[in-house]
Amino acid sequence: MAFLVPGSASAATNLVTNSGFESGTLSGWNCPAGVVTTSDPHSGSYALSATPSSSDIGQCSQSIAVQPNTAYTLSAWVKGSNVYLGVDGGASTWTTSSGWSQLTVPFTTGNVTSVTIYVHSWYALPAYQVDDVVLDGPGGAADTTPPSTPGGLAIGSPTSSSLQLTWSAASDANGIDHYDVVRGTAAAQSVGNVTSWTATGLAAATTYSFKVRACDPSGNCSPYGAAVSGTTSDGSTNPPVSSLPAHALTGYWQNFNNGATVQKISDVPAAYDLIAVAFADADASKPGGITFNLDSAGLGGYTVDQFKADIKAKQAAGKKVILSVGGQNGSIAVGDSTAAANFASSALSVLRTYGFDGIDIDLENGVNAQYMGQALKSLQSQFGSGLVITMAPQTIDMQSTSTEYFKLALAIKDILTIVNVQYYNSGSMNGCNGQVYSQGSVDFITAQACIMLQGGLRPDQVGLGLPASSRAAGSGYVDPSVVNNALDCLTKGTGCGGYKPSSPWPSLRGAMTWSTNWDAANGNQFASQVGGHVHGLP
Description:
Elements: E1 13-14, E2 34-37, E3 47-50, E4 60-65, E5 71-87, E6 92-108, E7 114-120, E8 128-137, E9 154-156, E10 163-166, E11 178-183, E12 189-190, E13 196-199, E14 207-215, E15 228-231, E16 248-254, E17 274-278, E18 281-282, E19 290-291, H1 304-316, E20 320-327, H2 337-354, E21 358-363, H3 369-383, E22 388-391, H4 404-411, E23 418-422, E24 428-430, E25 436-438, H5 442-455, E26 462-467, H6 480-492, E27 510-514, H7 516-521, H8 525-535
Parallel strand pairs: 16-17, 16-27, 17-20, 20-21, 21-22, 22-23, 23-26, 26-27
Antiparallel strand pairs: 1-8, 2-3, 3-8, 4-7, 5-6, 5-7, 5-8, 9-10, 10-13, 11-12, 11-14, 14-15, 18-19, 24-25
């Protein structure tokens, strides 16, 4: 057993700038939804007050220099509903309190020289307050070197109201925290650590100029790169065409035998519009690279030629067959530009070899939004606009737009087909209305799905992922009637539990199940009952 020994350094001190907001400003904080208030501070004369919206959790953050492999304690006094305190990419905690309550988050840094601390509430909740934020521990060396200037800014994919921007990643010894985009003479807008972003709310047939700079965790920003102009179209542009029906049923097909019914692709019921072949394999010789190996022995002698022919037959019947990357034991990682290039090139080769229609990202060991987004955009540019791209994150991965999976979904929104979140093996989670729901209910499914809908995805990009039987997952199985009620609640406002959306989303894409094999072992109930319901949605 190995033990991490906290590093020793100078005497502990509070490393937070403007920790009690006594400057009367938000100096030192990145806090778009916040203001300084004199109303009932915890101490002194001021406190932070931040107000979430229906599409924003009201986050305020600060990047702080620290020492690697060292123990710290983060604390703050908070007041309000569902107030979170945490470290970006690390530990967090939360509380609901009508009076001042102290939250504490102990953590140990990894091999990093800065961390970003944050506070936030939840979508559409009332304003919350924060005061006396403390990061207790030894300070790190101040970083005063800005990142390199991002280059290669390009503008494309025009619609009547939006333009898509892409640029090359900048570099910095301590990493990039975010990029700022300026449109014309407007104020800079932080768009996160991404290399693509879509400007929305634009006027039709109008030319706009943009420029981009990079900022590191210490607040150092590069000079802006050269401005580039783009023009919106004079008419609306439809979402990417993938030839899927407006409401679709997705099923994962197992390329292995784990006790479920062994199937050929030809055995998958016609109710499944999209079949995700699970899973691709990691290419050990190429970081980020993938391969695919049909488990012929485990599938009763199913040959590669039969497999390819069955894919073609499904496609001739109007279905799509894609390759899923990841799974519970998936070890593929795309964490830099080299791995992104390897992923794109190897995936293109596998897709063309077997005739797959697209790719599914189901990496349960996490994703890097920047580089996986870069990989998928590269793959789509080489494969063509018909590429189907789906994702199957775990429930926890889509709880907030600040998670890497959510960042990835938004970064590739213009080419993304469906996100089918796994609403199982989840326990209890916060819903979009600030309430906590346990898995296995209509409320859990609907209040989780609306997080994606409120967070920026189109309804046609949202699907509900549930297990096909009680044996298909460790927990979270529900009867098909519960799935159908959730679909009705979200698309029609009927069949809801305690949570009912203020307005329905009729174009919600549909449902997904793990797996077609477990469904077959359960009498194909998901295909017949949920599939039939999906195809009957408005």
